[in-house]
Structure formats: structure tokens, C-alpha cells
Amino acid sequence: MKDKRIELPTIKRSKKLPIVLSQEEMRRLLKAPKLLKHRVLIALLYGCGLRCFEVRNLKIADLDFDRKILHVKDGKGKKDRYVPLADILIRGIKTYLEAEQPLEWLFNSKGEQIIGRAGGDFDGRYSQRGVQWAVNEAKKKAGILKPMNVHTLRHTYATHLLEEGLDILTIKDLLGHECIDTTMIYLHVAQTEKSRAFSPLDRSYLSRK
Hints:
By secondary structure, this protein is mainly alpha-helical. It has a single domain (10-208), classed as Orthogonal Bundle (hpI Integrase, Chain A). It is 41% helix and 7% strand. The strands form two sheets. The chain has a three-stranded antiparallel sheet. α2 runs antiparallel to α4 (87-100) and α2 (36-47) packs across α6. The termini are far apart. Residues 16-199 form the Tyr recombinase domain. Keywords: DNA recombination. It comes from Algoriphagus winogradskyi.
């Protein structure tokens, strides 16, 4: 009721910033899984900034090795997008495809796996619980103490891209965000050369040694 200058108070949203892994933590995490399937899974989550349901929905036909891109179909809001595939990731996926020979889904069941076991599959696709289990096991083996989940890899992807100099609008498109405001949160997390904060200890006490 603006004519009477009566307005409801604004509901304050949480201002918590996302947890992000360092480059060194990501290297340890990627090396941690024993199974090639899980190494490729984690590499895709981080290397392409995928959501959990997006990596589960990947089909072999969505991979374009010639153009070095991945077609993410029916993302959040039923939006499609293309994301680049790194050469090292392409090599890993090709090795995985040759070894495991999945059928339709990139991460699927061959039929002999027991439904419901940790890391198992449902309806032909890798289950949400299976993805979460693989990431959590890798976290423990890598000795990462930060609280993290599957979505942490997507936050890390966006932050590392920003720190490497990619512009925020391109990152928005790669993440499939509807609104730029959602992407802007990474500006508060990334440590770019121009905005890198420092402690007064670095400039005062340590410089006098």
C-alpha cells in the first residue's frame, strides 16, 4: 500500500558465501577415487560446472569430442547450454568409454549391479545417492577438511574461471544462470590479482625480516 506508505518488511536472505576448494585441493580430489568411473564423474562436475542431476542425465550422444564441447540438455529451467571440454577430460572420458562401454547414459548400469547399494544405479542412470557417495568418498580420501558436497564443485568451477580472468557474463552462460545476480556472488569469493586482499602482516612485519 504505497499510497499510504505502508510496506511489508523485506525478508532478509542468507548472505552465506559458497565453499570453494583450492587448486591443490581439487588436484587431490581428482586423484582420490580408485574407480575410473568416479574420477571421470568428479572431473565432469568440476571441469564443466555441472549440477548433480545434469551429470546424471548425460548421454554419450551429448559428447562432441571433435568440437570439444558438451551439450547439457534440460538444465535448470529446462534450458540447454554448451560447455567446453578440456583435452585432459576428453582423454579420460574416452578411456572410460572404452573400458566400461556404457550404453545410452554416460554413467549407467550394465544390469548386474545391485540396486540400492552404495554407489549403485537406478533406472539405468547413476543415482543421485551414488554421485553423492562418490564425491564424499573422494573427499575423505583426499583429506579435505572443508565442508563440501557435490554442488561445491560447481562453485569451485565458477570461482576458478573468474580467478583465471574469464568475464562474469560468460561464466553466467556457462553455468546456465537465468539472472546475472546469481553469478555475481562469485565476485565476493574469487581472489583475482586486482582485488586480492592481503593481511597487514604480509606488508608490515614479514617485510622487515
